[in-house]
Amino acid sequence: MAIIAETSLPAAIGNIDLLLHGYFFVSSARTEVRTVDEPGAEGRWNAALEAEATLSQVLPALAAAIPALPNDDDRGALLDALKKTDWWGKHRALVCQSEALAQVWDGGGCAKWKRVPAAAVRPIASASSTSRERLSTGLPGLANWCAQTGIVLAHGPILAAEDCRWKDAELAAIVRLAGPAAFTKLRIAETIVIFP
User: Fold this and answer.
1) Backbone angles phi, psi at 169, to 5 degrees
2) CA of 184: how far to CAs of 22, 116, 187, in Å?
3) Can you tell which superkingdom this protein's organism belongs to (predicted)?
4) Are 99 and 56 within 8 A, CB to CB?
5) Measured distance CA(139)–CA(178) in Å, rounded
């Protein structure tokens, strides 16, 4: 088994191994997977196996494993640690494709860790001014707006092929939801200002 990436996790989480298995062709020393830069079909086979069969299973496996962690802080720490690896930067597009994994909230009910279409995810900074309670009271109609647009809000780290971002028109809609209070009430202004 070759170690492709290592990163630090909080001590409470312990060690987590992410094993990627496939019938890969390896180097003669059996310490590295052959690459497409090497002569022969083995490297091309490995690239196809990695892209089509192995990496596409990482996000579903992470989504299934995340509930086993004791709390949301640990779940977020795991995603943050993975995002910091060079491996993630190189493979995130094939791992996520058009999906994202995050703690998402649709404007009503509870936030849940799950896989969702990446195009629907909008990041929310984790702060007291963006707690679900403050968002609900400060932005009346937020749940309806999320339902109408199909947007889900994500607190904390997001695993996606590309960074999820707000569109200008969406941010303008958020200000409209707050109404004049966006400019006259400090708590509402603090909530809106922290939208990325």
Assistant:
1) -65, -35
2) 59, 35, 9
3) Bacteria
4) no
5) 5
Given a cut of 50, whether residue 27 has pLDDT beyond it is yes
Phi and psi at 155, nearest 5°, equal -90, 130
Do residues 15 and 9 touch, judged by C-beta distance below 8 A?
yes
Q: Are 53 and 45 in contact (CB under 8 A)?
A: no
pLDDT at residue number 1: 46
The 10s digit of each residue's pLDDT in 135-145 is: 888 888 888 99
Measured CA to CA, the distance from residue 166 to residue 176 in angstroms comes to: 15
Report, in angstroms and rounded to the nearest whole number, the Rg of the chain calculated over CA atoms. 20
Q: Mapping DSSP to helix (H, G, I), strand (E, B) and coil, where does residue 112 land?
A: strand
Comparing C-alpha atoms, which of 125, 147, 121, 122 is closest to residue 134?
Answer: 125
Quick one: which H or E segment has residue 90? helix 86-96
- Write down the pTM of the prediction: 0.84
| Distance (Å, whole) CA 120 – CA 143 | 14
Gap between the Cα atoms of 139 and 20, Å rounded: 43
Q: In whole angstroms, what is the distance from residue 119 CA to residue 173 CA?
A: 17
- Written as one string, the DSSP assignment of 151-183 is -EEEEEEEEESS-----HHHHHHHHHHHTTHHH
